[in-house]
Amino acid sequence: MGIMQQSREISGVLTEASDSLDLEDLQHFLMSRPPARVARYEFLHFRNGTGGRTWLAGLIDKVGTAKAVGANIVDSRWVTVGFTWNGLRALGLDETSLATFPEEFRQGMAARAAILGITGANHPDQWIGALESSSLHAIAILFARDVAERERCRQEHERYVKNCDGVELLSALDLEAIPPFDYAHEHFGYRDRLSQPVIQGSGEVPTPGSGPPVKAGEFFLGYPDEDGPATGMPQPQTLSRNGSYVAYLRMEEHVGAFRNFLLEHGETPEQQEWVAAKLMGRWRSGAPLVLTPDKDDPSLGADYSRNNDFNYKMMDPHGYGCPLGAHTRRMNPRDTAANMNRRKMIRRGGTYGPPLPEGAPEDGLERGIAAFVGCASLVRQFEFAMNVWANDPNFHELGNERDPIFGTQDGTFDMTIPKRPIRKKITGLPAFTTIRGGAYFFLPGIRALRYLVSLTGGC
Amino acid sequence: MATTAIETPSTPKEKVRDWTKPAAMAIPKEGYFNLEQGRYGPIFPKTPACYGFSVVAKIKPGREQALRDYGAKIEEAVEGSPNVLAPLKLHYLRWVLFDVGSGLHFMYQGIFDTDFDKYLEDAVALFVQTGITTAFVNLEGWPEDWKTNLQAVIHFFREHQCSSFLEYGEYPYVSAEEIKKALKLKAAFSNMLDLMQ
Predict the structure, then answer these.
(1) Which candidate, A242, A244, B24, B126, has a CA 20 to 30 Å from the CA of A367?
(2) ipTM of the complex
(3) Distances (CA, A) of A414 to A67, A158, A427, A428, B11
(4) Is the CB of A115 less than 8 angstroms away from the CB of B38?
(5) B116-172 pLDDT, tens per residue?
(6) Is A301 inside any structural domain?
(7) Contact B118 A231 (CB under 8 A)
(8) Which is it for strands B105-112 and A433-443: parallel, antiparallel or unpaired?
(9) Which of A114, A383, A427 minimises the CB distance to B36?
(10) Residues of B in contact with A104 (CB under 8 A)
(11) Is A175 found in the same domain as A81?
(12) Domain region containing B152
């Protein structure tokens, strides 16, 4: 989440990449971010297989590969494409092959809503953009340097889609960074992208505290993962090798409600920042509570050599710094959880909607983040995080608490903030976010895309 | 208490769990009241005896002693590393061999604090690591590719699970963590009182 901008990951990434990662075949999306400030997500439906394959054939040369984007080649190869299971069928993939894809991907995110804890106001019944529909076949992510270029891309793609008889735009979402532009953050004001796994073989060096590089197979199919050699790849391997799964979530952020909450629970700006920090696990500057529990430290928040260098069990077992149920502690429990090397995920995405100026009342316009969570196994990585960390009321034996920022809040859950002498317990937490849409996509490698184009038949 | 919500006028009834009164719970044949899906299949509800499973399987011919030998192996593993089974959040484990006329069978009964579905991957990883899974290769139906095929292992457990129709708890819903905390607290108070003499 956060803004699209020249990312620190670009410099030096992939220049010394090992041969084992097939950089020319991997889509760039989970390997690196292109230097794009804006983007547009287009959700597509294929009325027939021919139309879908024609559309894809014309786009393949525009799809960003890990090699091209890593080298910071300035060209328009910044398209990312992904398909739902229904989309693969629509393109003509045979039923035998379709059946080899994992159960959760076949069902799709909407059908798994209860498992993910996406209920109540977050339920697919309330989604917009037709993402819950079986008609959702593909996503095309168009990256651009600025709004003007994005508009050009939009028009170009619109013309292109019209010419591919049988392809239809179901819905779209425009994304752009919000000010201030010097660091990645979202609408609530929290600094973001401070804790990302590093892929073994990418040449990138993890920031202190981020743990060792993670085996490529945790994110890309066909590579050894943290458990051993690649197994259980969907068929045919031409299609699955170098592919990844992403869980997409469109999450509206209720900025007015969030700011009112801070005002309600903090009498001074310092106290309000404290409350904001306790919900997240970091001050809005990014400084981790474990390292600076009582007051903010913006220079720590901005310092990548220090801002991720902490753990919980050793340094903050009772949560006096970072509450046990805070967002960052749930999304990455560090040394308090087993097999963390099997629970890493790569996050991508950005903000959408106009920023709400500080002090302005809620204006009712939709704003939020559109996020992708990339991994090699949706059930083991993404769904585990949602089911066991985010939305389990008994996470860490808390009893009646869900993730305060990201969890499904319905006004009946609490938030405990350990404090000496007496802990602070907030009851009836309001919902600061609402999930407005989501889907599971498969992001094939380039050879796989060509394979899909070569199919016949389909819807 | 961390695991139970104190009843207040606004606490929804279904969130209150009272550990002070022993309780029993009758469970429908399927093993659940309302079908709720977990990531890998139906979730079995929390009862006054927390969560648990009873997995029953026939033993491969001639494998009785091999299986019995695992008793000593696991005793040794836990002695060497007392917290080795911590991810399972266990209260109790019972491994039983029985023959009631249709051949030697094995029952694995566990009572724990996490529902069957949540920590399955961690449990399997642990079993592999401690060699517990190697005990299961002596069971009929155990998948040959258990080391790499998590789905097959999960399928085995679910297929061989026999649901309780009644469970009772003397101190309902209380987790092993809570019990240990309470005991530690008691010991600490006791020490403190001694020091005040």
Answers:
(1) A244
(2) 0.85
(3) 46, 47, 4, 6, 11
(4) yes
(5) 788 888 888 888 777 777 788 999 999 998 888 888 888 898 899 999 999 999 999
(6) yes
(7) no
(8) unpaired
(9) A114
(10) 39
(11) yes
(12) 17-195
